[in-house]
Amino acid sequence: MVGVGLEWGCGVVGFGSMYWFMDAATIIIRHVKERRSKCSLTPLEGRADLVFHRARPGWEFVVSGFTVLGLDAPVLSKADVGRPFLLLDSTWRRLPELERCLVGVPVRRSLPTVQTAYPRVSKVAQDPLGGLASVEALFFARLLLGDRDESLLADYYWRDIFLENLADAGF
Asked: Which of 45, 80, 145, 161 is the most buried (most CB within 10 A)?
């Protein structure tokens, strides 16, 4: 259960067909409780290469054929180019709720460990090693796929620190 009695079982399909947006480079699904004011991806809303969705109780998304980032999966590489990319935007604590709305079999990939520049402070849970801010994960994933698009980081306050962290890690 989440919030005031919202059940996160996904018994209702949110899309009859998802193929109308398959040309978009990246689909981003946000947890319904993700605060846009604190979200590192908010400045990217409206870009033609990104499609944003807000998950809510009862909503589903068909992920078959998509590359989805996660922990404990093979590392993303240029061999993954050509598949649509799905980024889940959530706190680590709420991520399992968001993942329950995914239907089908995605291609799971992970990112190499790089230090985040985002100053995280959680009193509830500890972030996993290698956990990045959403905009950092998006930039790093695209970089690994051969697309170094620094415009993704244009409005990111910790941009320079993150780029230094990537360079220090050999990227």
From this structure: 145
